[in-house]
Amino acid sequence: MSAEEREAARSMMEKGKLGQTPEQQRAGFDELFASRPLGDDVTLVERTLGGVPALDVRVEGADQDGVILYLHGGAYIIGSARTGANLAVPLSRRTGVPAVSLEYRLAPEHPFPAGIHDALAAYRELAGQNVVIAGDSAGGGLALAVLLAARAEGLPQPAGAVLFSPWTDLALTGPSIDARGDYDPLFSRANMVESAELYLGGADPHNELASPVFADLKGLAPLLVQVGSAEVLLDDSLRLVARAAEQEVDVSLDVVAGAPHVYQYFAGLMPEADEALDHAATFIKNRLRDKSVGGVA
């Protein structure tokens, strides 16, 4: 990642920095991301999935077997199915697989575990299909929570899960929370503490559904984790991957030097972002293929 690319990404992310209230944060985030063009080959169609509002992400030619369930990021308090479509679309376009982006409930109006209930309800409706779950930041943590909740409920695991810069530790115990603070243009310990408190609503931050880095991960679906070295959530990914490997989960990790939080948003600007999406698409296609022929999910 060149200095020019890093500065361009930093400038974009500075514009989306968290505001003082959830309403301000949502307005700023939507201004930055909900209006981004998706392409003339894309149609978004409102639907419900397990009783939860969602958007069908229809990319021309994306008619292969399977479905990508996308869970947007936004610290559990901002973001929408439309902002999630910004990453669901390139995944669908690269894989040829249809996608759906979920409008799960947000805190503080709907604190933990409301979003998990919504995401699990959506997955429950899709569980008979060939599914990969993907999510960024809080959506990555939510994807892991769905895997854990599905396992507890006796539902089959999805074919795999793709996690972009997942937030896996709401107790904020990772060293990078402070060590990367000067490099991360979006997050600081202070605004992450605030977001975690709004989401948790008094719940224990060590609860495994809130902070999957502390969970028993045995038996979960294969994972692909991608993270940038410049973000405060770096250790959320590194510790998750180490724990998953120790517990014999099929897990892969991509760390991109100097890349910011959810750098995949900068496809077309950062070559590393396009490469990451290409790798994620390969993972998704391979997992869906293996699941369809009876491979381990």
TrEMBL record:
One of its GO terms (molecular function) is triacylglycerol lipase activity. Residues 1-17 have a biased composition (Basic and acidic residues). It comes from the Bacteria. Keywords: Hydrolase. The active site is at residue 137. Residues 68-264 form the Alpha/beta hydrolase fold-3 domain. Residues 1-23 are annotated as: Disordered. Signal peptide: none annotated. Belongs to the 'GDXG' lipolytic enzyme family. This is Alpha/beta hydrolase. It comes from Kribbella soli.
